Amino acid sequence: MDFETMDKEYVLQTYARNYVNFKHGINATLFDDKGKDYIDFTSGIGVVSVGHGNQRLADAISDQARNLIHTSNLYLIEPQAKLAKKICELTGFDVGVFFGNSGAEANEGAIKLARKYGEKKFANKKYKVLTLEHSFHGRTITTVKATGQEKFHQTAFAPYPEGFAYTKEIADLYNSIDDETVAVMIELVQGEGGVKAFPKKEIQDLAKFLKEKEILLIIDEVQSGVFRSGEFLATSLYEIEPDIITLAKGLAGGVPIGAVISKHKDIFEAGDHGSTFGGNFLSTRAGLEALAILEEYKQSGMLDEALIYFDGKLKATQAAFSTLFESVEGLGLMRGLKCPSSDILASIIKKTFEHGLLVLKAGKNTLRFLPPLTISKEEIDEGFKRLESACKTLL
User: Fold this and answer.
1) Fewest beta carbons less than 10 Å away: which of 73, 79, 166, 178?
2) Is 207 among the domain residues?
């Protein structure tokens, strides 16, 4: 039995898989079981922040696994405490951190925290969370409902939790806030929604308004966080201080992890929230090493150089293939090229794979790029060379 047959026989078919079988990787280059190499502009959907096969990360994980992988959150977990401290230092805020296992879990935790705030803070409990129509916040029942994209609200999974409402634009949020609204949850750069980065002033005005109304601002940085924007948080680029921030994806370089970060450190009490696996020895040791690597990379200037270089390549590609790409989207190494149609996007993704380049879809018609943050100039050059070759076949 081959592996594709095995997968289809024994794995629940929730993914429309491409059955390439990757065997190993070096930074932003993957190799399949036939020896073919691929430039990876996806990093496992923004997860492999320090590249494939990173020796420092592998050594840290191996060292931790030889000692302790897991006890439970009933006891002190030294690397968890250290990672929480490091995250607080990198944010520059006075915050507390809760660790889970994914972005969806982090957003669930943020919603629970907001709703308890709504009960403790106000005489009449506030519980409603406002999000945007093109948002994406996770795949659990609650975070699917928090997600504003109607296509995710399938009737098969109904009934959904109450207490969520959506607006089309940031400007529409103001008139949607009522006496039951406790929080607004947004992505500064919408990932699944088309790699759309919101204007800085629009976000700053919203943050100021919500603070005056004592309504929480939750920033979902599951994809934009952990240096993907060029800073530890995209929040820093927008010069705001949210009440709650969520992280996941690149935080541990590929080991499952999620984090809820909040300046409201006294809302949760023992027993209010928890996770069996969240913040265990293995994941938080991996997180510490991944952050150490990325912080050094940022301080060396190499991350900023990569961002500028990648941006130049995107703009040159858009200019060279303007019939295929209408605009350049996003910021940092969370980028997109908007196509005129979903059919063109599908053709580009298919052709790039044939040319040995991995890219992603975002929204209806945006080609998304989420390369490892440590990607080399040589890998960027080769990746765009392959993208160019693929695009030429479509003209």
Assistant:
1) 178
2) yes
